[in-house]
TrEMBL record:
This is EAL domain-containing protein. Residues 1-254 form the EAL domain. The chain holds residues 516 to 769 of 778 of the full protein.
Length: 254
């Protein structure tokens, strides 16, 4: 497999990049954090999407060194940004299911954060709804370990899997990311609006923070604000960008 061997080389050369997409407080549109999104740059200047290579990285086990790299780079980036005048900024890092099986995963993250002098609140981890449904006992254990360490845990792509409400109630997650597919048809279709409204209110009633993903228009922002959804993310506010650009944006906003 050519893709696979090129992936190996990229891991060796540590030649991935991280893009940061701002996460916004929907009340006043200020940036509260950013999601770290892995980028694989190609010789011709294009990028291969993680949607394409993460599954291969999972099959080959490469997700472990890649995931470690993403975590370390994301924490270093947020540490730099926090020290440049944004001490409350948080970074959200996606974790693949295979990473959740690593022994001492949480311990290693905690000690990395300690060595960077970062409090637990500087990090949120994102687990896909699919992974949380995978091995119930293991997932509960990992989520609890993160929570015991004070690290927030989000369910990513919420609503695309088949988590039961009972399951949601039994996991001590802090955040639910409403999958961007739910924003299709918002605000013009009544049913689409109802679904998003229902998810946002369910989260609120469970004491869980919600983040609406894929906000692309001002009208979507408006209606989510009216629903009381606290946080959002999407091209309307900002695309994933290099750390330097995020710093410039933060400075402009300050
Ligand atoms: O940003 P983009 O649309 O290219 O991301 C595509 C998918 O890849 C998303 O589902 C996103 O969650 C996932 N992804 C991006 N970066 C990472 C990462 O560092 N680790 C894992 N496991 N998934 C990632
Ligand atoms: O699965 P996850 O939520 O981690 O994936 C994040 C992905 O969503 C990234 O690939 C990112 O580029 C993409 N994304 C972020 N905001 C928007 C948006 O407003 N519209 C669309 N279509 N994609 C978005
Ligand atoms: Mn995500
Ligand atoms: Na998502």
């Amino acid at each position: 497999l050519q893709l696979e061997s090129r992936l190996y080389q990229t891991v060796d050369a540590r030649a991935f990049e991280i893009a940061l997409q701002p996460i916004i407080d929907l009340k006043d549109d200020h940036i509260v954090g950013a999601e770290a999104l892995l980028r694989w740059p190609q010789a011709d200047g294009s990028y291969i999407s993680p949607a394409e290579f993460i599954p291969i990285a999972e099959e080959t086990g490469l997700i472990i060194p890649i995931g470690d790299w993403v975590m370390e780079e994301s924490l270093k980036a947020v540490q730099r940004l926090r020290s440049q005048g944004f001490p409350d900024l948080q970074v959200a890092v996606n974790l693949a299911i295979a990473q959740l099986w690593q022994t001492h995963l949480v311990e290693r993250i905690v000690s990395l954060m300690r060595s960077l002098d970062l409090p637990a609140s500087a990090l949120k981890v994102e687990l896909t709804e699919g992974s949380l449904m995978n091995d119930i006992e293991r997932m509960e254990e990992v989520v609890r370990e993160f929570r015991d360490a004070g690290i927030e845990v989000a369910i990513d792509d919420f609503g695309t899997g088949y988590s039961s409400l009972a399951r949601l109630k039994s996991l001590p997650i802090t955040t639910l990311k409403i999958d961007r597919s739910f924003l299709n048809g918002v605000p013009e279709e009544e049913n689409a609006v109802s679904v998003v409204n229902t998810i946002a209110h369910m989260a609120y009633n469970l004491g869980i923070q919600s983040i609406a993903e894929g906000i692309e228009t001002e009208a979507q922002w408006q209606i989510l604000q009216e629903m009381g959804c606290p946080l959002g993310q999407g091209f309307y506010f900002a695309r994933p960008m290099p750390e330097k650009e995020l710093l410039a944006l933060l400075l402009m906003q300050a």
